[in-house]
Amino acid sequence: MSRPLVPGLVAENTTDERFLGAVVFRQLRALTEKGTRHVVDVGKTEIGESWTIKDADRVCRAVVELAEDCHLICVHNDHNERGKAEKVVAVLREQGLSTPVVPLVPVRETEAWLLADREVWAGLRGSDLTRLPARPRDVEKILDPKPVLDAVRPGSGRRSRADYFDYIGQNVDLDVLVRIPAYAAWVAETEEALKGLGYL
Predict the structure, then answer these.
(1) How far apart (Å, rounded) are the C-alpha atoms in residues 115 and 50?
(2) Which band of pLDDT confidence, cut at 50, 70 and 90, is reported for residue 161?
(3) Which superkingdom (predicted)?
(4) Residue 75: beta bridge partners?
(5) What is the pTM (predicted TM-score) of this model?
(6) Whether 125 contacts 154, CB under 8 Å
(7) What are the residues facing 9 on neighbouring strands?
(8) What is the mean pLDDT of residues 146-150?
(9) How far is Cα 64 from Cα 62, in angstroms, rounded to an integer?
(10) Coil vs helix vs strand at 76
(11) Which of 77, 102, 127, 199 could form a disulfide with 121 if both were Cys (CB 3.0 to 4.6 A apart)?
């Protein structure tokens, strides 16, 4: 008999939702497949009704709404809003929310994480691999990842910029992502939350 695990996500915008929603689902599935005592049925990531660029009260309400259906919720912010994700987590703990809320915060911007896996870009004809850093962890040193992402992705074709967030989220090698310190920190905190919930 399987046990359900439904993740939730509140992110900064639609493209972050598209990339991180897929990554959260895949990472939870990978964690529970390797470390669980029983079969876990990881559900599709539920997306919150507010973006985290809104005020903290709205973000907290979105998380509380997600908690009605989700077992674990990730709150994403980029570096310039790092404090907001942590504030939301603290406020919800004070309010007694029992659903674990895990901050998901890149050192700079989510776009940097899309640049970590050279192989996934090599599979896309027209990608400029010369703009990618030598090591996955070096993506956190890119001061402005958005123009680098625009330079790497193929310039021709019918895919929109947002489509690459979907594609990379569904195909990026999780073992490559975990070499990025901020991502590894999120995975470690997520593992602890899953242990607390009895999934691991």
Answers:
(1) 26
(2) confident
(3) Bacteria
(4) 10, 103
(5) 0.93
(6) yes
(7) 47, 74
(8) 94
(9) 6
(10) strand
(11) 127
